[in-house]
Specification:
Layout (H helix, E strand, L loop, with lengths): L10 H24 L24 E8 L6 E12 L14 E8 L8 E11 L22 E13 L2 E13 L13 H7 L2 E2 L5 E8 L11 H7 L11 E10 L11 E11 L5 E7 L4 H5 L2 H8 L10 H5 L3 H9 L9 H9 L16 E4 L31 H9 L53 H4 L9 H29 L6
Antiparallel strand pairs: 1-2, 2-9, 3-4, 3-10, 4-5, 5-6, 7-8, 8-9, 10-11, 10-12
Helix pairs in contact: 1-11, 3-7
Amino acid sequence: MTPISRTGAGRGGVATLICGALAAGGLAAAGATALEPGAAAASSHREAPLISGTPQYDNTDVYAFVSPDKPDTTTVIANWAPLQEPAGGPNFFPFAEDAQYDLHIDNDGDAQGDLVFRYTFRTHVKNGRTFLYNTGPVTSLDDPDLNVTQTYDIELLKLEGRRLVSRTRIADDVPVAPSNVGKASMPDYGALRKQAVHPLAGGATTFAGQADDPFFLDLRVFDLLYGGNLSEVGNDTLKGYNVNSIALQVPHHLITESADQPVVGIWSTTRRKNAQGRFTQVSRLGNPLVNEVVNPLEDKDTFNASVPRDDAQFLENVTDPELPKLIEAIYKIEAPAGPRNDLVDVFLKGVEGLNRPPHVTPSEQLRLNTSVEPAARPKRLGVLDGDNAGFPNGRRLTDDVIDASLQVVEGELLGAKNDLGDAVDANDKKFGHSFPYLADPTEGSRGPLARGVGGGNDVRSGLGDALRPAAAAGSDDTGLIALSAGAGAGGVLLAGTALLWWRRTRDRAY
C-alpha cells in the first residue's frame, strides 16, 4: 500500500516512532512463534487445485463395509474438511450450509446412481454477541452453553436412468456432534458423540459430526516418493488431525438390487450452490487415491465435476499410469508393461467372482459385495491377504489401502510379488466396535500443562512458570516469553504515545 503524503513538521519522526513500535510488536510475535509447533504438511486430501481452497466441500475418503456387529447392514462413511487442527477455534469446523453432501448407490452396475442419500445442514447460534463456540461446560447436545450448533436433514432420492422418480424426507433436524473444543468445554465428549447417533425408520442409523481422521498413511510420498531414498516413511502424517464425518448404516435390502445381486457401487459428492442459486458438483470420491495419484493435474478438477457414466474419458490414466514410471525412475523397480488391464479389472469393474456386478460398465466406484460376512480377524491388506471382506471389496476403517494399492500398481496381480508400503500399518487411535465406529476427534486443549500446574491446581497467576511448559528445562523459554511480552507491551505504549503526539501536531482532529 502506498502511504498518504502529508505535509507538516515531524512527519519523519512519526514514521520512526511507528516503525519502532512495529519492531517491538514483531519481537513479541517472534517470541510466541518460537514456542509453537511447526506448520502442518500438505495432505493428499487436497487432491485438486480448485477444491483445495474450499475444505468444507472437499470429500477426503469413503468407506463402505458390512457392519461387523450387525452383518445384515452396510455402513457407509464419508469424510470432509481435511487437516482440521483441533485447536482451530473460535469458529471450529461446521459443515457448509450451502452444500448438498450426497452418498450415491449404484445397485445394478450400469455406472448410474439408483439411490442418493442427501445430507443438508443448518447452523444455529444462541448468542451472537459472544465470540465463544460454547459459553460453559457442555454436557449434552441441547445444553444452553453450546452456543453454536448444527442440525441436518436427509432426503432419499430414487432415480431411474438419470431421472428422478421420487424424493422422500427420511430425517429432520438431527443434531450434529460438535467439534471437540477440549476437556474444560466438553468433559465427556464420548457422551456427546452417543447423543448424535440417531435411528431412522426401517432399521437405518445416521451420524454426523467431527471425528479423528481414520486415514493412516505417510503423506511425505509427495517429496519425490519418500525423499527419493525411502528415508521418509513410517510417520502417520494425519495423526492428530480431525475431519467432518457422515456415517449411514442401512439394511442390505434397502440398497441392493436383489438378494441375487448383492453388489453395490458407492461414491460420494459435494454439490455447492452457485451465484445463480443452482447446485453444482465440486467434489467426488469413490476409491481412495484416484484423484490424488492416478489423474494428472489437467484432469483433477474435471474429475471432481464428473459422474461415473463418463469415466471413459479418464481410462488412459488407469491403463497407462504415471506412478509405476516414477517408481522405476527413482527406485529402479521395473514398471509393469501396459496396458494395465489388471487395474481396470480391479478398480473399475470389481474383482471377478467377488464384487463385480453382472453386465458391469467400467467406472470409478467403491464396490462392495454385501453378502460377504465380516472377517473375525480382519487383515489390513484385505483381498491381497485372503480376506475377502476387505479392500478392494469395499473399504474398512482398518484396511491399509496405501500398501494394498501400491502393491497392485507395482504388478502384484501380474506375478510381480512385492511387499511395498509406507510403513504405517494402523491408525494412531483405536476404532469403535459399534456404529459409527470412528474414533473420537482429538481435543483442542491437548498439550503439556504449565509447570507447577496439575491435579486440582488452578491456572497460576505468575507470568514466568505459569506460562512455561511442564517439560521445559532451564529458564531460556521463560525469559523469552517474558521478554516478548514486555517488548509487545512496550510497543503498544510507544505506538500510543506516537499517535497522541502526531494528532496534537495537526490542525484538525484525526
